[in-house]
Amino acid sequence: MQIVKHKDISVHSGHDNSTVDEYYMDNKDIDVCVVHVNGRTPKEGKLVNSEYKCVCYVLSGDGEICGQKVAQGDAFNILAGDEYWFNGVFSVVMCGTPAFNPAQNKNIKEN
After folding, report:
1. What is the pTM of this model?
2. What is the pLDDT of residue 109?
């Protein structure tokens, strides 16, 4: 078992209008983070994960994922290969597998 205390998280910029609280664990099979969205993320285009798939829970606020409205208490999933974007002011817990690797997360610019 491993416990990551809130004081030990790594906070970094996400794509454009978001920040991410990363709970890094010594496990390559699964991970968890909290994404704080404050506007369209990414500003242009969509995001896609080549390997990572996750279940997401809206912790607070409301907004959209790919034009679908979400609010506090809602859940959704993002599968590997799904193109997606966020818009609104909300925080979402993302728990996925395999552990997130930024190298497999791409911003796809639309023409």
Report:
1. 0.92
2. 84
DSSP string, the chain: -----GGG-EEEE-SSSEEEEEE--S-SS-EEEEEEEES-BSSSSEEEESS-EEEEEEEEEEEEETTEEEETT-EEEE-TT-EE-EEEEEEEEEEEESPP-GGGEEEE---
The token pair at 48 is 């896609």
Over the stretch 23-32, which tens digit does the pLDDT of each residue have? 999 999 999 9
Q: Quick count: other Cβ atoms within 10 Å of Cβ 73?
A: 10
> β-strand 83-84 against 75-78: which pairing, if any?
unpaired
